[in-house]
């Protein structure tokens, strides 16, 4: 089976992490986020993937080349970002399958444990134009919702509302009949969620929902990105691409964790990163060459490449950009983001995003 992987977004919600690296290539549990998706797609029977690239397009081929994780890879770039629908239409030029064959469409920022083979089976037995993976969430008011009838057919694509009719939401993994992709306008900006799916439903095309509510996470926000990385390390979701078995922490080759440090909660410690004695790092992502000094505390945070946390400093829910430095004694919390190269001098001040 062939797949299209949507990886052209700018990842604005994850800045400053995405200034130098596109979201799908961010190191997540020791490997590029996409490695987990490629390995899972391969396990589901996908043999060839077309990458739909735009933002920092050249970095994808440099990272994965012509074949990775058992899958042949092809790269198609948009000169202007075409949105999710336009990107699918544009990338379909590189597909080789027949008009009735199923094509899997994956969003490059979803970590999902669902059974893709089962989704394809639903698609084929219904003879559907499109089959969406739907997941159930506790609070559907935060998402658009997707009701289905007794036979599993999608009846509507509804915008966010305070009174949702179902807790089923679009989980961002689709099976398209190859010929259904041709209904999307060529060389135009199109949103598959806002335009293509509602249009298919109102034209009477068969759009099916495959409801499966296992592990599912959209890693598009800093909190979710950290959560996803930690969940992979802790083994809450299996990935054939994991560089080690499940555990409280993943320490990559060349990292140094002092025996007097506490590092747990699914934390990854990158190559060349150092955690000194008396430091505590919980549920966090330390990229290559990050440094946590003695007595510092880091929780639910990301330290980008070469970022440094001084002695006794406290970080809780914070993103440090590449090479950012937090001087001794600072206390940072609550979604604060420090841009690459910024240095906070030694102090005893508490910085937060609270008013
Ligand atoms: P934010 O800017 O933080 O919203 O992130 P994003 O740019 O990744 O957007 P969003 O999360 O809505 O995108 C969902 C998926 O579609 C991601 O995998 C994106 O890489 C991808 N995507 C979004 N827009 C485009 C586009 O115009 N072209 C391509 N090729 N992919 C896109």
From TrEMBL:
InterPro entries: GlmU/GlgC-like_hexapep (IPR056818), Mannose-1P_guanyltransferase (IPR050486), NTP_transferase_dom (IPR005835), Nucleotide-diphossugar_trans (IPR029044)
Gene3D superfamilies documented for this protein: Hexapeptide repeat proteins, Spore Coat Polysaccharide Biosynthesis Protein SpsA, Chain A
Organism: Actinomadura montaniterrae
One family name in Pfam for this protein: NTP_transferase
Protein name as annotated: NDP-sugar synthase
Glucose-1-phosphate adenylyltransferase/Bifunctional protein GlmU-like C-terminal hexapeptide domain ranges (all copies): 268-330
Domain called Nucleotidyl transferase: residue spans: 3-231
Lineage: superkingdom: Bacteria
């Amino acid at each position: 089976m062939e797949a299209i992987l949507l990886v052209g977004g700018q990842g604005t919600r994850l800045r400053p992490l995405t200034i130098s690296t596109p979201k799908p290539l961010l190191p997540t549990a020791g490997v590029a986020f996409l490695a987990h998706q490629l390995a899972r797609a391969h396990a589901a029977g996908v043999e060839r993937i077309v990458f739909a690239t735009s933002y920092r397009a050249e970095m994808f081929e440099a990272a994965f080349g012509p074949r990775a994780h058992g899958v042949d890879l092809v790269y198609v770039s948009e000169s202007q970002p075409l949105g999710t629908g336009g990107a699918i239409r544009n990338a379909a030029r590189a597909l080789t399958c027949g008009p009735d064959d199923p094509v899997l469409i994956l969003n490059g920022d979803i970590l999902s444990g669902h059974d893709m083979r089962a989704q394809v089976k639903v698609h084929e037995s219904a003879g559907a134009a499109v089959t969406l993976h739907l997941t159930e969430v506790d609070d559907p008011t935060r998402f658009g919702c997707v009701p289905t009838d007794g036979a599993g057919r999608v009846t509507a694509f509804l915008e966010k509302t305070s009174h949702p009719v179902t807790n089923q939401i679009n989980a961002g993994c689709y099976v398209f009949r190859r010929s259904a992709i041709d209904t999307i306008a060529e060389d135009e900006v199109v949103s598959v969620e806002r335009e293509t799916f509602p249009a298919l439903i109102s034209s009477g095309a068969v759009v099916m929902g495959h409801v499966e509510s296992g592990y599912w996470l959209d890693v598009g926000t800093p909190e979710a990105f950290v959560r996803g990385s930690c969940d992979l390390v802790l083994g809450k979701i299996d990935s054939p691409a994991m560089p080690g078995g499940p555990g409280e922490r993943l320490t990559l080759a060349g990292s140094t964790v002092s025996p007097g440090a506490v590092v747990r909660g699914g934390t990854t410690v990158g190559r060349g990163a150092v955690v000194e004695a008396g430091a505590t790092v919980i549920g966090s992502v330390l990229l290559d060459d990050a440094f946590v000094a003695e007595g510092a505390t880091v929780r639910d945070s990301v330290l980008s490449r070469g970022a440094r946390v001084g002695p006794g400093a406290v970080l809780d829910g914070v993103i440090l950009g590449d090479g950012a430095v937090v001087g001794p004694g600072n206390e940072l919390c609550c979604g604060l983001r420090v841009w690459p190269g910024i240095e906070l001098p030694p102090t005893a001040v508490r910085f937060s995003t609270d008013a």
